[in-house]
Amino acid sequence: MPETRFAVLPVDTLSAIQEDRDAVYAELHDEIDLFQIEGRRSLVVLAHHLVVSGLKNRSFRSNKREAFFRTLAHHGIQDAARAALERVYDGWLMYMDPPEHPKYRTEVAEALQASRTHPGQEASELVSQAFATGEPQSITSTVSPAWLRSAMASIMGCSVVEYERMVELSKTLLEFFIGRTQIEEKDIGATLGAYRELGELLLAQQGRNGLVPLLLESLSADDPRRIPVIVSLIADTWEPVLALMTSGVFHGLSKQSGETLCDSAPSLEYLFQESSRYDTPFQLCNRVAEAGATLDAVDCQGGDRVLFVIGAANRDPRIFEEPREFRLERGARSKQVSFGHGPHYCLGARLAYDLCCTFWNDLREGMGKRRYGVASHRWRDVLGMRILDELVIVPVT
Ligand code: HEM
Fold first, then answer.
1. For FRET with 339, which of 96, 227, 241, 315 sits at 20 to 30 Å CA-CA?
2. Is 157 in the pocket of ligand 1 (CB under 6 A)?
3. Would residue 1 count as lying in a domain?
4. How far is CA 118 from CA 155, 296, 326, in A?
């Protein structure tokens, strides 16, 4: 294991990563393993072995409640509103520490497993229609979101309109909790309103068939996490799945030379596995250190923020040979951490791969005998997410 050095980074490192992720990751892997951003006690962890050991370590908590309430107190929010928010925040799974009973987690995982069905005729038909004209197709703004909405609605057991509203409300909640430094009274009202409406929408699905009713059944009515678990499943599904679906298509088609890339692949899933390593949809896992937590040789203070950059770990040359090459054959043996690691490992990883493979098959069917290639693409200019905002494919001869 290489020796870990601990360095103070200039504050603009994160913007440098945003501007040129590839170059910065490559350079930082070679130079240093662990950083402290000047004056902020924020650790940025890039090396694969440190990301893996940190995510496993329960002293790095994914619960940001404490920091959140310090912010609230700082802005003088009234006690009543604070108590109400605490109830909402308490149940926000992504920021909770793992439930005490493993049974709870197993039941959610089983419910997810049981929902693995082909998303249905409607989604496939949407793709066929989109390709009927043979015109250039914008995958990211038309075909894939329409397909995913329809697929997810059938998996969840609700209508497309209900699913769209659930995603919208979940995003409102998510935006409220992530990266917020300033909290105003009006935000609290909007947040609680969104939370209530979402709860009503979810409860209205009882008695139907699908993932939401299954989850409602598997969690007892007095479990305070009953609604929030499902909320976080919805909020967590949309963008990363869309990101992986489209980046898989991007890689699958852009290396085309007569055949598409995965025509020659040992398994279609390898395409999406390597895409999730190469263009990791969620680039970061956030944690807060408990007092006395140590990472490798570094002592952390309680409240230190730690950014585990899983996008960088997935390109660590000590683990991945020629990490900047897209290689299908890495396949299932790959040690990638795109879906996290340890107690918070993604509950929907299996479902995400299934959705991506099904989408690809529907897409190929929609293309008919025509061959398609990538005409243009644009990655979103953000640090935390690796997602295509534009992917236009055109028929090639
Ligand atoms: C390509 C798609 C996806 C990617 C890249 C992804 C990635 C991740 C990552 C990196 C984590 C760990 C977060 C952390 O440790 O802080 C995570 C957790 C989680 N994911 Fe996913 N996810 C995807 C799809 C899904 C889907 C489809 C679902 C549900 C249907 C889902 C549900 C969850 C949940 C509930 C957690 C939290 C688990 C916990 O905290 O114990 N994800 N996901």
1. 227
2. no
3. no
4. 8, 44, 28
List average pLDDT for each run of 10 residues in the chain, which is 397 residues long.
59 69 76 68 86 93 67 69 71 60 73 68 83 86 91 87 90 70 71 84 84 78 72 81 95 68 70 94 89 86 86 92 88 85 86 90 86 89 88 87
pTM: 0.88
Q: Residue 8 pairs with which residues in a beta bridge?
A: 36
Looking at 91-184, list the stretches that DSSP marks H as alpha helix, in order from N- to C-terminal side: 102-114, 121-131, 144-156, 160-177
What distance in Å separates the CA atoms of residue 195 and residue 172, rounded to the nearest whole number?
A: 9
Which atom belonging to ligand 1 lies closest to the Cα atom of 285?
16
Q: Which atom of ligand 1 is nearest to the CA of 351?
A: 27
Is residue 281 a part of any domain in this protein?
yes
User: Does the beta carbon of 354 sit less than 6 angstroms from any atom of ligand 1?
Assistant: no
Nearest-CA neighbor of 119 among 305, 352, 324? 352
For a ligand 1 pocket test, name from 245, 346, 351, 354 the mutation site with the most ligand atoms within 8 angstroms of its C-beta: 346
Token pair of 106, please?
Answer: 């197993």
Q: In the chain, what is the straight-line distance between the N-terminal and C-terminal CA atoms, in Å?
A: 50
Separation between Cα atoms, residue 163 and residue 237, nearest integer Å: 12
How far is residue 221 CA from its own chain's centroid?
A: 28
CA of 245 to the centre of ligand 1 (A): 15
Q: Could you list the residue range(s) of the whole structural domain that residue 373 is in?
A: 6-396
Q: Return the amino acid letter for 379.
A: W
Cβ of 336 below 6 Å from ligand 1: no
CATH number of the domain within which 368 lies? 1.10.630.10
DSSP run (H or E) holding 393: strand 388-396
